[in-house]
């Protein structure tokens, strides 16, 4: 009796990382963040291993041209706490966008990554730029269409 093929867990030396370019022009925030998080995590590869960094490096350009649907510019609120009593602070998506548009995508992608040691290192694999210029041309990033 022959057994079925075995599941192979990829090793550190077998991981091949590449660079991926996502253009956020006219795309919704959730769509861009979900695709970027899946690529960073490695879920788009057949060698996906949940406990390892098998994903690719992602470059997101034109973050300033992202769109939010409905009234989310005013209704979506991001909270943070200073650590002091009564220290809860809040900002709307519009306020964050006005300060630094790339932070909207950064917060959305970070929220889609695992909440553990792996997730804290995976978020370093994304680079977000407000304009169309980026310094990663020499890595020959592969463009992904959403």
Structure description:
Helix 1 links the parallel strand 1 and strand 2 (57-61). The longest helix is centred in the first third of the chain and has 13 residues, at 29-41. The chain has a domain at 17-67 and 100-144: Ribosomal protein L13 (Ribosomal Protein L13p, Chain: A, Alpha-Beta Complex), CATH 3.90.1180.10. 28% of the residues lie in helices and 18% in strands. The chain has helices at 29-41, 72-75, 93-99, 102-112, 117-122, and strands at 19-23, 57-61, 77-81, 88-92, 126-128, 142-144. The protein is globular. Helix 1 packs across helix 4 (102-112). By secondary structure, it is of the alpha/beta class. The model has no long low-confidence stretch (mean pLDDT 94). The chain has a four-stranded parallel beta sheet, covered by helices on one side.
Please, how many helices?
5
What percent of residues adopt helix (DSSP H or I)? 25-40%
The protein's oligomeric status is single chain
CATH evolutionary superfamily of the domain at 17-67 and 100-144: Ribosomal protein L13
Q: Can you count the beta strands?
A: 6
Beta-strand content: 15-25%
CATH class type of the domain at 17-67 and 100-144: Alpha Beta
User: What is the overall shape?
Assistant: globular
Strand order of the largest sheet: 5-2-1-6
Q: Mean pLDDT score, rounded?
A: 94
Q: Work out the radius of gyration.
A: 18 Å
Q: In angstroms, what separates the terminal alpha carbons? A: 46 Å
Proper CATH architecture of the domain at 17-67 and 100-144: Alpha-Beta Complex
Poorly predicted ranges: none
Q: Sketch the major β-sheet.
A: 4 strands, parallel
Structural class: alpha/beta
SSE arrangement, N to C:
EHEHEEHHHEE
- CATH topology-level fold name of the domain at 17-67 and 100-144: Ribosomal Protein L13p, Chain: A
């Amino acid at each position: 009796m022959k057994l079925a093929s075995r599941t192979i867990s990829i090793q550190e030396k077998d991981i091949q990382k590449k660079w991926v370019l996502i253009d956020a022009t006219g795309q919704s925030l959730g769509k861009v963040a979900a695709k970027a998080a899946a690529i960073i995590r490695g879920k788009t590869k057949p060698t996906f291993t949940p406990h390892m960094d098998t994903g690719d490096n992602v470059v997101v350009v034109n973050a300033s041209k992202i769109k939010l649907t409905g009234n989310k510019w005013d209704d979506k609120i991001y909270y943070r706490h200073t650590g002091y009593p009564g220290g809860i602070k809040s900002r709307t998506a519009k306020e964050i966008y006005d300060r630094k548009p790339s932070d909207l995508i950064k917060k959305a992608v970070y929220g889609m990554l695992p909440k553990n040691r792996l997730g804290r290192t995976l978020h370093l694999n994304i680079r977000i730029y407000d304009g169309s210029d980026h310094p990663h041309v020499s890595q020959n990033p592969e463009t992904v269409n959403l």
